[in-house]
Amino acid sequence: MSADRETAGRRHALGPACRQRPWPLPTPLLEHCTTSRIVSGSLERSPLTTPATTSAPSLSLRPLADLHVEIAEPIDAGRIRAGQRLIIPITGGTVTGRISGHVVPGGADWAIARDDGTTLVSATYALRTDDGVILTVSNQGSLRGDDDATLGITACRIEAPQGAYFWLNDVPIVGSLVPFRADGTMGVDLAFYTVEAAAPPLPPQ
């Protein structure tokens, strides 16, 4: 049988969905038709070609670093639509954990104190690791509470140059934030965690 006659024969056997065109079907469409059928005017995929579904991977938190960040008195920048704008200078601090080093003075938290008692955090500052690498931290979130019990939750991005810390550019990071005031200094203690996914389970055989 010639190739044209064989294709025509296959098209005839596949039904009206694949017979309606007089010209030979492209191979991918022809293969699609061999695993599909028409049900009540709609195309139904054969179970042979339905992708296997797998469960979403479970997520876990792995400690990344603890930051002890010192700040200066907030600068009241006035009333804006969202609340009271506060610019909080970052004056230094320490970093321990999988990243170790210190907080470089000069960053700031451009916070907003809302009328409902929530403070929105938007801090950008630099870390210098013990081996001399500069990492740029962008940390955003919110905190709520009073002087005795205040806790913030943040999402963090760390920008790292090429080298040993470059992997930090792509990893999701979350954290907690607790203000402190002691011995004439004030600031926040932060705990950063990387979000990691477990390998998904294999589909049943």
Description:
This protein has 205 residues and is mainly β. The protein has 2 domains: 46 residues, no CATH class; 139 residues, Porin (Beta Barrel), CATH 2.40.160. It is built from 3 helices and 11 strands, in the order αααβββββββββββ. The strands form 2 sheets. An 8-stranded antiparallel β-barrel has the order 3-5-6-7-8-9-10-11. Strands 1-2 form a two-stranded antiparallel sheet. The protein is globular, with a radius of gyration of 29 Å.
Summarize the structure.
The protein is mainly beta and 205 residues long.
* Rg calc: 29 Å
- Helix/strand order, N-terminal first: HHHEEEEEEEEEEE
Mind describing the biggest β-sheet? Answer: 8 strands, antiparallel, barrel
User: What is the CA–CA distance across the termini?
Assistant: 39 Å
Mean pLDDT rating: 82
CATH architecture of the largest domain: Beta Barrel
At the first level of CATH, the class of the largest domain is Mainly Beta
Shape: globular
Number of strands: 11
